[in-house]
Each structure stands twice: as structure tokens, then as C-alpha cells.
Amino acid sequence: MHASLTIGLRCILASLISLLGFACLGAGEVRAAGEIRQPIAVQFSSDRPIDASVAPFVLASVAGFFSAEGLAVTSNVASGSKDAIARIAAGDSDFALVDINELIRFRDKSGVPPVKAVFVLFNQSPYAIVARKSRGIHALSDIQGKTLGVAEGDLSIRLWPALARQNGIKIASVKQNTISAAVREPILSAGQVDAVTGFSYLSAVNLRDRGIPANDLAVLRYADYGCEAYGFAVIVNPSFAATKPEAVKGFLRAVIAGTHLAIKDPGRAVDEVVKRMDDGSRDLELERLRTLIRDNIVTGEVQRNGLGGIDPARFDRSIDQIAEDFKFQKRPFAADIFDDSFLPPRDGRLIN
User: Fold this and answer.
1) Which pLDDT tens digit goes with each residue over 198-257?
2) Three-state helix/strand/coil letters over 229-282
3) What global pTM score does this model have?
């Protein structure tokens, strides 16, 4: 009887040791897997040199949001949205921040990869006409009979025909002078033109920095006059999205966290941006970021629906407005350009 009990106890003990050993082995395997797991390398392109507009991405990096998602993000600068889109299409970059209206035009070309936007940062486009009130321009209707400076490659002028039609302005009544982007603000400051087209967070802020009094500037935002266009958006390489969908979702979660932080603490955001600029002005970039947040990022639509998404009906109307200056081979629809499947649920995107 005693021998049987001893044998039984030994069997139970052996079984327990075996189970514990298996559990420890499993834990060791988990730890080992965690130790050898390498972050996914991600290449991000901005369509212009760094300024306050990329604050959410800078914060996502310095605050550790990208690394928390298992991503090692490096960045590069393209020479405009067209170049940044080309890098994504060729697979030279994985993500890029570009003007979504340029993406719409790109997708109309024959044989191009099906590049899509997956996150809209600027819920309203920054397109604007910036004018001098001292030249008699206070509202959009005052632009008739005036001279408008248009920079080479300017994207906002391409939606001017739709804007003019909506507001009863005869395009022929506005003289256009083609100028270099480098002299856009100096020419207006010198009074050589009455107004210029551009981005409100760039030209308007730059002009105030050049000493033009704020009360002499009329910033005529397209969005205030019926333009439906969205603005800058994150696009992704189609192959990367197909093979690494979780990385795309993680990238967007990190950008959303960075955007929340930029909205909550613009001062910190600008400090981090200016560190990475050549001769950046903290005051100028802080004004730029606050303008972006107020006019382009935290809109009524975003407050209702959260960051990053679109209203498909509005998006389709914006395509109709683009079509007034661009002849589509095949008119696209919202689903052809924007993919919301990588976005977190609405509750994870709402602005607190």
C-alpha cells in the first residue's frame, strides 16, 4: 500500500514537472520571438520641405507612436505632390503626404498603379486667394478687374474655374500673371499684383511675416466660397498595403495619435518641427500650425465624424468641380481614390 502511494506520488510529481517545463519552454519561445522581432522599415515622403504641416508625423516619431506600432519610419522630401505620388507608384516610398486632388488627376492616367489615399489630414483644402485690402479686395467678388499672380505649378488655380462659376465671376475679367513660386509673396508685398493664389497657411502667414499688416490682408479661402475639395492626405503603395495591412493600420494609428498631440500641444509640436528645419522661425511655424488646425484639420465634419475619413457624397462633388478644369478619360468615384478599411473605428478618431 505504501509502495503504491509512493509510486503514485512520483508519477504526479513527474507530470507536474513535465507540465511546468512545457510552460517555461513556451514562455521562452514567446520571449525569444519578441526579442528577435524586427520593426518594419517604412519610407515616408513629404511633398515639400518640412514645416508645421507635418507636425503630426514628427510627433508620431519623437513621441514613440511609430515605434510602439513596430515601425521604423524614415522620411524624405519630394519636389511636390506629383513627385511624391510617383515615388509611391514606383515603390520607392511606402507612404506619402500629398494633395489628394493631384492624386485624383494622377489616377486618370492609363496603366498607373491603383494608388489610394487611406487617411485625410486636411479635411478642407488650404486653397486660397490672398489679396491686399488696400487694393480694393475684401471679398471674392472684388477680384473682377484685378491682376492675379499665379505661381508655376500652383494647384489651387486648377479649381479656380469651378470657384469662379459658383460665385458668378467671369474668368476673363481677372488678369492672370504667371510668376515663380519663390517671388509670390514679394510680388504681392511690392504691389506688383493685386492678389495671389496659394495655400492659406503658407502665403498668408508668410506675408504677415514680411511686414504686411494683418488688417490689410484678405484671405479668401476657397472652402468659404463653395469649394468642396479635401486637402492633404496620406497615400500608400498598393503592394505594401496588400502585403502589410497591419503595418498600414499601425501607421495610421500613430499619425492619429500625433495629430491629437499636435492639436493639444501645438507649442511642443512646433518646437520639434523647428529643430528639424533650416533657420525655422518658431513664431512663424506656431502661427502656421494654429491656422492649419483651425481652418483645415479640426472642421465641423471632423468634430462629428473623427479624423481621417471622408464624406463620399462631398468627395464626389469635389471630383465634379475638378472636372470643370480637367477632362477625365473615365470619371472616378470616391471609392476609386479613398480606402477607409485601414482606419480605426470612429470612436478612435474623434477629437476630444
Assistant:
1) 999 998 888 877 778 888 999 999 999 999 999 999 999 999 999 999 999 999 999 999
2) CCCEEEEECHHHHHHCHHHHHHHHHHHHHHHHHHHHCHHHHHHHHHHCCCCCCH
3) 0.88
Q: Is 161 exposed, middle or buried (0-12, 13-18, 19+ CB in 10 A)?
A: middle
Backbone dihedral region for residue 227 (phi beyond 0: left; psi -120 to 50: alpha; all else: beta) = beta
- pLDDT tens, residue by residue, 318-349: 999 999 999 999 999 999 999 999 999 999 99
Query: From CA 2, how far away is CA 295, in angstroms rounded?
Result: 86
Tens digit of pLDDT for each residue in 109-125?
Answer: 999 999 999 999 999 99
Rg (CA), the chain: 26
Tell me the β-bridge partners of 151: 179
Contact at 8 Å (CB) between 272 and 59? yes
CB neighbour class for 37 (10 Å; exposed up to 12, middle 13-18, buried from 19): exposed
